[in-house]
Amino acid sequence: MTDATDLAERAGDRDPRVGLRAVAALRRLLEQLEAVQVRSARDQGWSWQEIAAQLGVSRQAVHKKHGRQ
Question: What is the DSSP code (8-state) at residue 1?
Fold first, then answer.
């Protein structure tokens, strides 16, 4: 978690170059974490609707994004 904490700190940097690079890296990390958790939920038998409810999105959105993985 140290890397994520470091990125979060850098996202608030006064230098936009540093902050924006950190934001982009956090976005990539978040996408990876979401994919891992969705895969885990599906492996445990969760429906697309259950996953969508936890993510606060529609069933269609989560299925479109993760349905082929």
Answer: -
